[in-house]
Structures are given as C-alpha cells and as structure tokens.
Amino acid sequence: MGGKSLAATVRDRLPFLRWSVIRFALGGRTFLRTGQVGDGRERAAREFVLAHSAAGDPDGVLAAFDDFARNHSLLVNIGDEKGLILDAALRKTAPRLLLELGGYCGYSAIRTARLLGGDARLVSVEMNPDNADIARSLLAHAGLADRVNVVVGTIGDGGATVKRLADEHGLSSGALDFVFIDHDKSAYLPDLRAILDAGWLHPGSVVVADNVGIPGAPDYRRYMRESEGATWRTTEHHTHTEYQSLLEDLVLESEYLG
Q1: Model confidence pLDDT, tens digit, residues 90-114
Q2: Any idea where the domains of the chain sit in the sequence?
C-alpha cells in the first residue's frame, strides 16, 4: 500500500462508510436548493483552512482544503485528482478572461487563479451569498483576491446575472477564453447555451465541466457528442468523484470551434 494506512485505504475505497458522506446525502435536497449541506461544514472548512495554511500560499491553502474534505467533512470541490485535469487545461489554454459557474467555497477559484499570469482574471459566479463570502475570504488568505471577482447570482435567473457580467466584468463578444462549470448539473447545458447566445466565446475557447458522470449531466454530454467536430471538440477524462477511488466520474474538456 506504499505506506498508506489501512484506515486511509478503506476511507478512499469505501467512501460510503464516512459519516460526512452519509450526512451529505441526507442533506442533498438542502444542498440543491441552497448550495450548502446544512450542517455548517462550509464555514468549518473556512476556519480549518485559515488555521492550517499560511497566508499567501495557494498550494498550502488547497492542501488544507483537501485535508478537510478527505478527513473531516466531504466538500464538493473538484478535488485533488480531478483538479489536475483542470490545471492541465488551464496551462494549455493560457486564458486571460475566465468564467466559473459554481464557486462554492473558493477551492476551484484558488486552484485556477494560482495559475493565471499577467492581467488574467477569473469571474466566479456562486448562488449562495455565504459561500461567496467564504470564497472571498479564502481567496484573500491565499493572496489571490486581486485575480478573482466573486459574483452572487446564477446564469439562469432571467438575465440579471448575465447583464451584470457584461456591464461590470467585461464579458463581451468573443472575450471569454475559458469556462469552468461545476454547479447545478441540470443547468450545465442551459447555461452554456446562454453563454453561446451572449456571444462571449471565440474559436479556441475552452469549457471544462466537472461531475458529468456523477451526479451526471447526460444532456450536456449528449450535446457535446452530437456537436463533435462541428461546434465542439471534446475530450472525456475518465476519473473518480471527489476524494475517493471507488466511484468513477467524467470531466469533459471541450474546445469551441465556432
């Protein structure tokens, strides 16, 4: 087992034995409605990360996040395994303007922003104001607050958030280089269509979508398959759901062809 303890191996292979996973499942409806599980784990994660990482050290902040999510209470971050897929896509694309749908507690925003250079910036959209505050505080702790704007809202709110993104955050015709989607799975395709309708993408823009396997976004996956070689070129990354090695998941990395 390469020095890995039996308890750690069981925890990775049998995630359903972890109470925080069971508690998350019990709070599933609350999470879908509010963006939080309902047991205070999101605020607890902030306090843990602040206490167990040095200010100005993004990688240390991510490590503390991963420690909390793996060993204390499950979080719906993209996590350490799938995060490497996001990292690789970011390095390959070298984007300047990025949009995130589903900021949660700031993990993926920190993971993304630490790889941005120059004047590149990320706009992170999160539905829950408390999550947004947690994300802002941890981005500041990581030393990345100047690279990320956290916006409370949803793309599917009737146009208010889309207008705000255009008016206040520079999302305009052909301006968007990279999109990371990790929010309500039923909103993946409608929100992508809204982005397309707004004209924000350009040929070469990249969209990365997490959890296409579990919980699953079958309509989004079907759309990408039907559009292959015409509007999109997609790579399906076979991986695992957050913080365990039993349940398989899919991350889709799609290049917009125009």
Answers
A1: 999 999 999 999 999 999 999 999 9
A2: 6-71, 79-256
Side by side, the strands of the sheet bearing 121-126 are 148-152, 121-126, 97-101, 176-181, 201-209, 248-256, 232-240
Instruction: Please indicate whether residue 242 is annotated as part of the active site.
Output: yes
| Helix (H) or strand (E) segment spanning residue 234 | strand 232-240
| pTM attached to this predicted model | 0.90
**119 given a catalytic annotation:** no
CATH architecture of structural domain 79-256 = 3-Layer(aba) Sandwich (3.40)
Q: Can you say whether residue 251 is alpha, beta or left, with left for phi > 0 and alpha for psi between -120 and 50 degrees?
A: beta
As a whole number of angstroms, the distance between CA 140 and CA 134 comes to 10
Q: Is 146 labeled as catalytic in the residue annotation?
A: no
Q: What is the pLDDT of residues 183-204, one digit of tens each?
A: 999 999 999 999 999 999 999 9
- Catalytic annotation present for 57: no
